[in-house]
Structure formats: C-alpha cells, structure tokens
C-alpha cells in the first residue's frame, strides 16, 4: 500500500499513482508483521546506535525482527543511466544495514519517495519512473521485492526505503564481539563524496581551477564512474562471507566516514579494544583532489562522508586474508576493484575507540579492468603481514 501526500493536486495525484501502478502493479500491498506495529513490541525494542534496531518477537530469544529505514537526497542528472543508478544506490544503502549484521535475505522492502515540487511535469514523468525502476532492480538483485511505500511532495527529491527481516539468532551477527588480535577489513574504497563533487566541478570553473593541476578531466570522469559503481554495489556477498570466516563484528561505512563509524563500532564492543587503522583504500586521484581543495573533505582523517559505502568487518587474523581473497573472486567480473576488500588495520587492547595512524598507507584503487587493478587485487593479502 502506497501512502500518498493528501495535499498533492488531483492531476498530480493521478499521474503519480499511474507511475507507481506502472512500476509496481496495482495489487501490490504492504504486509508488515503485526509484531512491529504492536505497542508492546515497540516498547521491547533493543536499539543499538548502529545498523538495525531489533525486536525479540516472541519473547523467547528464538525469533527477531530487524528493521531499518534510510533516505538519501540524490544529486540528479537528466541522463537515463544516472537516474537508474540513483535508485539502485538508495536501495543498496538501505539494505547495507542488514548486511552489516551478516543477514543476506530481506523479507520485506518499502520505498520512500519524495517528489520535488520544483520539477515540471515532463521532468517528473521522465525521472521518477527511472529511479523507481533502479530501486526495484536492486531489491530484486538482493533477493527481495518492493511491496509498497510512501510518496510525498517536497522541495527536494529524496529516495529511500525500509528493509525488514524476521530471523533466528544464528542468522545474524551481533556487532559487539571484536577481540584483540582481530584484523579490520573494508569492502569498498573511500572517496565517493570527493568523486561526486569533483565531477560537478567540471562545469564550475572557480572550483575546477583549484584541482586541475592534480587531475585531468578524464580522470575525474573515471573516478565518478567508479564511485557510482561502488555505491550501487550491494554488500550482500560480504554479508554471506562474514559467516563463513567467523566475523566478530561489522558496520557499514556511510555518512560519518570511516573513522566515525569505526569509533561507533568500537564503543559497542564487549571487550576493551581499540581499532587502529593503518591503510586507506581510496578511489584513484581522490587523495590528490582532497589535498588540493584544502582538505575540506577530511578524507585522510577518515571523516569524509560516504554513501552506500562498504562494510568494516572485524575478522580473526587467520581468516582476514581468506575473506579478502574470496571477495576478490566474487568481484573479478562485473564488480572489479570496487567490489573487493582490503585489510586496513588491527584490533588492539584499548578503551573502545578508533584512530588512524599519523601516516597511513594510501592504497590508490584504480578503475575496474585495468592492469593496475589486477596488480592491486593480487597484493592485498600481503597487507596483513605488514601491519604493526
């Protein structure tokens, strides 16, 4: 069931309803568990300040409901593929909170859509169906489907969703089990915010002039494509491998940047630990751009926001290289370097905090399919022996 803004004009309402019906079918309804809407269940909710709130549905610690809602405000361009990508990215971002707890199956998916009141009818009819299609395609790739949602009118385009699953305790990994000696692995490169902004600056001479001495226009376009690909890639493979290689904890890296989410994860651990980050895998040329622009993004400090970033996973030392190798195997085709994994740090005894060493190693992640990407993939496992 789609919930529509009652203030929308009748012609706009009819047209939007037609778009939704065409995209999802007239008979699609939203079937939410009664336990989620039940007041007692909400009061019993155990909310972690990371990833997914979860509810003990039957009070016996046998069945849990995990649910997450996220919305993003995309930077839209009028190109068909980019509109599709924005929908995919939003869906991937929503699902990542389930994946960060090792859950690979989503039972129910809702789409949250804000239609910009500043768009004319022609642009609206062109853009919105493409975004819906991209969101729906990513949901299907994740093994689920969109059963409904909510649509409103807003000054901005906003797209997001709600992902929920009912599961048993052995199907998810609590994000609190890291121990000293574990290794930190990141499954997507950093720098998406820098890449997207740099691409916009191609048409803004004042800003482009600040970075043109360190990067070419072609390199910016390549980095933008890598960022779009990375953001649209699901973290589902990594979620499955978390079980295979006995992951102790994980979180997804999004708006608070690598260090922000690492700190948040460290604070949740049962053991007295500290996360020490030695390596930063970054989309090629984004380090140079960040420095040339006055470090405004704070990329090397781990504070640059990411959208639909990778998983930061705590793994036993003996399993980390195997995890990375299998991620590379899964990503050797369509995903390329952007779908790999990098060993970036270690877990030490400490006071539940995270830090990046003074001079971290910068791993420039090249474009997919290049010789450099192949060489970079082959060298990743060696990093585990070089961490101090």
Automatic annotation (TrEMBL):
In this chain the PurM-like C-terminal domain maps to: 180-355
Source species, domain of life:
Eukaryota
Q: Name one Pfam family in it.
A: AIRS_C
**Top-level EC class:** transferase
Keyword vocabulary terms for this entry = ATP-binding, Kinase, Nucleotide-binding, Selenium, Transferase
The role this protein plays is: Synthesizes selenophosphate from selenide and ATP.
Protein name (record): selenide, water dikinase
Organism ancestry = Eukaryota, Metazoa, Chordata, Craniata, Vertebrata
């Amino acid at each position: 069931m789609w919930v529509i803004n009652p203030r929308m004009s009748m012609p706009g309402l009819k047209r939007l309803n037609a778009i939704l019906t065409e995209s999802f079918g007239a008979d699609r309804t939203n079937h939410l568990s009664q336990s989620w809407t039940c007041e007692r269940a909400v009061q019993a909710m155990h909310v972690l300040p990371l990833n997914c709130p979860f509810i003990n549905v039957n009070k016996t610690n046998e069945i849990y409901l995990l649910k997450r809602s996220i919305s993003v405000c995309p930077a839209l361009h009028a190109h068909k593929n980019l509109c599709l990508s924005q929908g995919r990215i939003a869906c991937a971002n929503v699902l990542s909170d389930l994946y960060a707890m090792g859950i690979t199956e989503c039972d129910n998916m809702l789409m949250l859509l804000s239609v910009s009141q500043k768009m004319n009818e022609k642009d609206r009819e062109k853009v919105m169906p493409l975004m819906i299609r991209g969101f729906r395609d990513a949901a299907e790739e994740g093994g689920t489907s969109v059963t409904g949602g909510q649509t409103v009118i807003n000054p901005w385009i906003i797209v997001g969703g709600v992902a929920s699953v009912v599961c048993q305790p052995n199907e998810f990994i609590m994000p609190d089990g890291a121990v000293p000696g574990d290794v930190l692995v990141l499954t997507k490169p950093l720098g998406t915010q820098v890449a997207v902004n740099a691409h916009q600056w191609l048409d803004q001479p004042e800003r482009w002039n600040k970075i043109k001495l360190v990067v070419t226009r072609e390199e910016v376009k390549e980095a933008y494509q890598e960022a779009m690909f990375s953001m649209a890639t699901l973290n589902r493979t990594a979620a499955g491998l978390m079980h295979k290689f006995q992951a102790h904890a994980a979180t997804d890296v999004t708006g608070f940047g690598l260090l922000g989410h690492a700190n948040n994860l460290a604070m949740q651990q049962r053991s007295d630990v500290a996360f020490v980050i030695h390596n930063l895998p970054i989309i090629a040329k984004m380090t140079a751009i960040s420095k040339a622009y006055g470090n405004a993004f704070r990329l090397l400090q781990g504070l640059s926001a990411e959208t639909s970033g990778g998983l930061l996973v705590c793994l036993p030392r003996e399993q980390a290289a195997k995890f990375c190798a299998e991620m590379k195997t899964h990503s050797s085709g369509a995903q390329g370097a952007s779908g790999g994994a990098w060993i970036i740090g270690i877990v030490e005894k400490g006071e539940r905090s995270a830090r990046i060493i003074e001079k971290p190693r910068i791993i420039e992640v090249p474009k997919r399919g290049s010789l450099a990407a192949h060489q970079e993939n082959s060298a990743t496992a060696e990093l585990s022996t070089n961490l101090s």
